[in-house]
Amino acid sequence: MSKRDPKLPERTYNPQEQDINLFNTWQKEKLFYFNKESGKPIYSIDTPPPYANAPWHMGGAIHYSGIDMIARYKRMKGHEILFPMCLDRNGLPIEVQAEKEFKVSMHDVPREEFLAMCKQILDRVGDMILNICRILGFSNNSFDWEDVYKTDQEQYRALTQSTFIKLFKDNQIYEDNRPNNYCTRCKTTIADNEIDYRSGNHILYDIKFKVKETGEELIISTSRPELIPAIGVVIYNPKDNRYKHLEGKTAVTPIFEEEIPILLHHYAKMEFGTGILMVCAYGDSG
């Protein structure tokens, strides 16, 4: 080394290189592996598996950083930490992503062929998510592919199915009829938070109800007459003098003849339609 050579080979810290080297050392030395025979009190983290249909976003990384902070704190307090890494590899979003990427319909290709398309996406995106976790330095027990639990594994499916069956036999799960959102393209039910509502101009219908106590007609304006079976209550604005005599009375729905309480609530707009609003148990974001 000449006098002109720097004492340090690098004058700046390279986090991309140094951090991953440190992480690899942790994994190589199995510093965070779960040892149930350690004799320490076990602190188990039910890690929510990140969805592997698309690259991870900032919110997911921040969420897991908080979980990792708790794991590290409990580890320093002397606990044996069960903190598995995992990937959620089931569900409609993955199927939709495969349809978009491969330009096919799940209903038009053989099942095994479509599952292979889904697996390509899951493996690629899953590797991306695990790599982000490595870069962030998470202290999960292991990032080896065989140690990462995946929701499409036979063992995982057997466990979830047997758990469901047990809960059903113990009367902790019940079967019932209820309205569901149905996607005509995907041909399956979908959750409320997967529904998008569009604003637009619609026909306003005047529907005739009856007041049980007086027999008078009660006209309610709505653009959603198909939701009559879902009505739970009928409301009018407390400032609306037209309907003060209806307080505490009962409306009877057409066709179904269900008895619905009439209540006061400021949410009803006097200037909209007839000023009376039907409040439904499902079918609308409001």
TrEMBL record:
What biological-process terms (Gene Ontology) are attached?
valyl-tRNA aminoacylation
Q: Which UniProt keywords apply?
A: Aminoacyl-tRNA synthetase, ATP-binding, Cytoplasm, Ligase, Nucleotide-binding, Protein biosynthesis
**Which InterPro entries does the entry mention?**
aa-tRNA-synth_Ia (IPR002300), Rossmann-like_a/b/a_fold (IPR014729), Val/Leu/Ile-tRNA-synth_edit (IPR009008), Valyl-tRNA_ligase (IPR002303)
Its name, as the record gives it, is valine--tRNA ligase
* Class of the enzyme per the UniProt entry, highest EC level: ligase
| Compartment(s) | Cytoplasm
Query: Where in the numbering of this chain does the Aminoacyl-tRNA synthetase class Ia domain appear?
Result: 22-200
Q: Which PANTHER family match?
A: VALINE--TRNA LIGASE, CHLOROPLASTIC_MITOCHONDRIAL 2, VALYL-TRNA SYNTHETASES
Supply the Gene3D superfamilies for this chain: HUPs, Valyl/Leucyl/Isoleucyl-tRNA synthetase, editing domain
An annotated Gene Ontology molecular function:
valine-tRNA ligase activity
Q: Which Pfam families match?
A: tRNA-synt_1 (PF00133)
Q: Which GO cellular component term is one of those annotated?
A: cytosol
Name the EC number(s): 6.1.1.9
The protein's organism comes out as marine sediment metagenome
